[in-house]
Design a protein that fits this description.
Elements: H1 11-36, H2 45-58, H3 68-80, H4 86-100, H5 106-116, H6 126-138, H7 141-145, H8 151-173, H9 176-190, H10 194-214, H11 218-242, H12 245-255, H13 265-270, H14 278-298, H15 305-321, H16 328-337, H17 339-352, H18 354-376, H19 384-393, E1 402-406, H20 411-418, E2 421-423, H21 426-431, E3 438-444, E4 512-520, E5 524-531
Parallel strand pairs: 1-2, 1-3
Antiparallel strand pairs: 3-5, 4-5
Helix pairs in contact: 1-4, 1-5, 1-6, 2-3, 2-4, 2-20, 3-4, 5-6, 5-8, 6-18, 8-9, 8-10, 9-11, 10-11, 10-15, 14-15, 14-17, 15-17, 17-18, 19-20
């Protein structure tokens, strides 16, 4: 392999060509997988359809959440609806956005490598590192695991990778443009996903503190440290604007950080309860994190302070996110995010060590072996036949206020196809029963895969445990009413809360009884419910 980048002719152009080829391949691969499904795959795929339609019809989200991705999907859906029905347009745009956005992580990987070129003397080929690092992104078990289900999460990781690059560039070059781009991407993260927002805050605080310790330019660093409270206030203000229930949860976790380590994910992984791709995330995240710290120690004099701080910050974040000692509900999501900060120490290892270069190829091989299972064996939670039957039931429903109660994984499809209010819990239904002219229970007889009884996107436990991360004392689990400052006044789907206690085993409280079958086929059953008056 060439001894350094200076011996590789037109290296910038060749790296760019590699990125372009990988980017096209990554988008096409995801698109083939997503468009092979007639519906959006995963448990929560229809959630994005419901939110985008709510924006177009009602001017705002139907369920309080971070809005950026939904507005992008709604805007694209409005454009495509000029040529087809709104239903087909939104199905197309939700899949299209999930095909394109995650693959864009290749761009900040490329930008990092270009920035490292004049700073790192390497015995590895820069083109080889770009190729293997890019392939690890395309075949990442974490990104593929998020397809359909966790689109906000994967989109936010792209924004976070851009943010980490411009933050690094800000302390490296000190250009006003880099400062503004850093602030822009931080704001976009705060408009997209709570987990990525929390990760960005922790990452920024750690980065600034390490830079203050290692950098001789203390005056400039003090200015950066002053910016940290501003970023925190900005993040909390945006979270409070779009989903204020989560402010209480964030603050409670800060006051009681030890709760992060109750019921560790390690127990679930050892018991075989981990989801596809999680084990690889734990292994790669921890190996990359340890390797980064070792490289920082061994190659200390070769790196300037900003590069040194970047390596240590990413290594520590990767170790935390991939820690199997964190509470299982949180860890099942955090470990999917770990590959982003882990990518930087992995790149450093590939650049500074032949052993690391070979490890990078092993990581790619592991990802490629698992990729087909994640690409082509993740159907939607309902069959196409069940979907069509649910659509056919919409005209038969009373032309009045209707509530449908369904287990997690089916409630979004009920909201999408029948356009009614939905709930996952009979307890919730009891509290608001009198507000509706009719209440029904939806059961899917032939699910496409076992659906956990969890309480909504991002809240079910590892392996479908259905035991959510415990809420702060005094809070209803896990949030309050949905009418707390809902932005935009869109279609409201959940009458009480987006996330609440699961409907376990279709059990009915004593005060509710079935009042005949409204519709039944081989795939679904819709039953009328009646409140028993005492």
């Amino acid at each position: 392999m060439p001894s350094s980048i200076s011996h590789e002719p037109n290296s910038r152009d060749s790296l760019g060509r590699i990125v372009l080829i990988l980017l096209i391949a990554g988008i096409v691969l995801r698109a083939v997988s997503l468009f092979l499904h007639p519906l959006v795959p995963g448990i929560n795929g229809a959630y994005y359809l419901v939110q985008a339609r709510s924006i177009l019809r009602g001017g705002g989200l139907g369920i309080p959440d971070f809005p950026l991705l939904f507005y992008i999907q709604a805007g694209a859906g409005a454009l495509f609806s000029l040529f087809t029905s709104l239903e087909n347009a939104l199905l197309f745009t939700v899949k299209l956005s999930d095909s394109i956005f995650p693959a864009l992580i290749l761009i900040p990987v490329y930008l990092f490598l270009l920035t490292f070129q004049p700073r790192i003397q390497t015995s590895s080929s820069w083109r080889g590192v770009m190729l293997w690092a890019g392939l690890s992104v395309i075949a990442s078990t974490s990104l593929l695991r998020m397809m359909g289900d966790f689109q906000k999460n994967s989109f936010a990781l792209v924004l976070f990778f851009f943010y980490s690059f411009f933050l690094y560039r800000s302390v490296l070059i000190h250009q006003r443009k880099s400062y503004w781009l850093t602030l822009l991407f931080f704001t976009l993260i705060c408009l997209t996903h709570l987990g990525a927002t929390s990760m960005a805050l922790v990452y920024t605080a750690l980065f600034f503190l390490l830079y203050f310790y290692f950098s001789p330019r203390r005056k400039q660093v003090l200015i950066l440290l002053i910016a940290l409270p501003f970023l925190l206030i900005l993040a909390l203000a945006l979270v409070d604007r779009f989903d204020p229930v989560r402010i209480e949860k964030m603050l409670y976790t800060l006051k009681d950080p030890l709760r992060l380590f109750g019921r560790p994910a390690l127990f679930g992984v050892l018991a075989g309860m981990g989801r596809p791709g999680e084990a690889t995330g734990y292994v790669v995240g921890n190996i990359a994190g340890v390797a980064g710290l070792v490289i920082a120690r061994r190659e200390w004099d070769r790196f300037d302070p900003p590069t040194r701080v970047l390596l240590i910050t990413c290594s520590l974040c990767a170790l935390f996110l991939a820690s199997p000692l964190i509470h299982g509900d949180l860890s099942s999501r955090l470990v999917l995010m770990a590959f982003v900060p882990a990518s930087i120490p992995l790149i450093f290892w590939m650049l500074t060590s032949k052993r690391g270069y070979n490890l990078g190829r092993i990581v790619v091989l592991l990802a490629v072996i698992q990729a087909p299972f994640l690409l082509f064996f993740m159907p939607a939670s309902i069959s196409l036949a069940a979907y069509q039957e649910m659509k056919s039931c919409k005209p038969r429903l009373p032309e009045s206020d209707v509530l449908i109660v369904a287990s997690h994984g089916y409630e979004w499809w009920a909201a999408w196809t029948m356009e009614t209010k939905i709930a996952q819990s009979m307890v919730i239904a009891l509290k608001i029963w009198d507000q509706y002219d009719a209440v029904y229970q939806l059961e899917v007889k032939r699910p496409m895969f076992p659906v956990p009884p969890g309480p909504g996107p991002g809240m079910d436990g590892p392996g479908g445990s259905g035991r959510p991360f415990p809420p702060p004392p005094g809070m209803s689990h896990p949030g309050g009413p949905a009418d707390h400052g809902q932005p935009g006044g869109g279609e409201s789907y959940f009458p009480q809360s987006k996330r609440h206690e699961p409907l376990e085993n279709e059990a009915l409280p004593d005060s509710i009884e079935r009042d005949g079958v409204f519709y039944e086929s081989e795939d679904i059953r819709i039953t009328r419910l009646k409140r028993v008056r005492e």
